[in-house]
């Protein structure tokens, strides 16, 4: 099979999975096996594109001409392949986790969940391999629409209210800003295709480019830059596997990936450095990092704390892209990978705690490490990855982001990154430390009603436990072996 056929297959496998899941809806074991097989097949197919791309092969597919110069087409480029590798691998792990969680928590509409999850991954593949902004926008909107029912999965008034915020902000920013920016790019550059070094001619007005850059930054609402971030905490009403999808596999990663790709392949590093608006957008990203960290520190609900942590960490990726330096771009791209593994582990752990211990608040977790040592150890490892310290891969992305601020001589932003790292220590590390070392309290997990003298709390169902162990191990693996992703980033930048 040639590379173009493999690219076609990456777009078709999720659709075939959706159909197969619907056909096996009444036989849950087969339905879940289909999900795992499809996810594994997609990851295998994406990995087959790695060596040909690095060898210099052009891998492209053309589907449809809409207007002259405006086509639905796809092309494999290094950063897109990096994103596809992460998303396809985590689809396998999230499906495994969801099998344990959905059964253990007695969730309804499980077939709908697995079907929409497959469709979401299909949209992610379209975003990752889009050859132009038009194609990217189509799949970007599809991702919003097919994740909305997942956010409202519970069907409660609270879930529907969260879904309205989710849909309103994401559709509002994409139609009000993102689409306008795409049209303006078409008029200014005469093309929407991604191009190394950017698409704008040297004589293009910097004032117009400043406005355009602002429209892109605010228009890609999935990147959750303040003040367009409220959809992310609002979406925490969804089941934990959906939170994992939103934070690590698809939605927010699609947002920051799109911003990184636009900065690099629509504007280009040299143009970004010359645009006056880049400076104040940098400080906006910095403010988003700091404010979200402070808000996270004040949250007692575990999922809300993790949600605001995500808003802060997405700011790191946006800031790295806007630094318009080699170090900043490298750190931004690496942080997409490192944050994906760290944050999905944290949400897996939060879901495991809910299923096994029925706890949702941070102050309820004291002593829980004695009953759930695997889960809380994974939480500790993932926290270190988000903070950016050894023995986890987050060390590399934070290191390159700091180098990026040095290259750009942005001393204030360097200090801000240091302060934010200290804040992330403050809102993440006390959770596992208290779980292992803090004594009993009135609302502690260890005060659960005993059976025959032993606590009723145990680890989450085995599939969920295996999944969070794999992603926690991935956080450590990425410290030791980041070369596969680094090679793609180097080729892409």
UniProtKB/TrEMBL annotation:
Keyword annotations from UniProtKB, A to Z: Cell membrane, Membrane, Transmembrane, Transmembrane helix
Spans through the membrane: 6-25, 32-50, 79-101, 113-130, 136-153, 165-186, 206-225, 245-268, 280-297, 306-324, 336-356, 368-390, 410-429, 465-489
Main location: membrane
Domain of life, per lineage: Bacteria
Domain NADH-Ubiquinone oxidoreductase (complex I) chain 5 N-terminal: residue ranges: 70-114
Subcellular locations according to the entry: Cell membrane; Membrane
Protein topology in the membrane: Multi-pass membrane protein
Protein name from the UniProt record: Monovalent cation/H+ antiporter subunit D family protein
Sequence similarity: Belongs to the CPA3 antiporters (TC 2.A.63) subunit D family.
All copies of domain NADH:quinone oxidoreductase/Mrp antiporter transmembrane, residue ranges: 130-424
Pfam families: Proton_antipo_M, Proton_antipo_N
